[in-house]
Amino acid sequence: MVKNTAVGHKKFWHSFRFAAQGIAGAFKSELNMKVHSGLAVLVLAAAAVFRLPAASWMLLLLAITLVLAAELLNTAIEATVDLVSPEIHPLAKTAKDTAAGAVLLTAVFAVITGIYVFYHPVMDWITGLMS
Questions:
Q1: Which residues are catalytically annotated?
Q2: Rounded CA gap, 111 and 27, in Å?
Q3: pLDDT(2) > 90
């Protein structure tokens, strides 16, 4: 692991590189990160197809960001727990399950947000097909 020994502006820019490496690492190693990212791309493509207003885009981007951030935190917590407690322990299970619960909670919020944002445009589209 490379330690950030830079100072000033270099340290600031190095922190972005390390953050990007963390996101890339989670994307490479975590199936759920790939699934959430893929669904995010589909949702954003649908938002473009339906030409949703800016406020709807912001709601979708908020929901997507929350899910991806929760997944990143879950990955970090799981890695930390595995490092400090390689053996099975009830507290390790609690930490991992709670972090996974946070991802589930944000994913449910994202689904509800998607239903809220897409309901009328999809219903209008279906109505247009039937008439």
A1: 71
A2: 21
A3: no
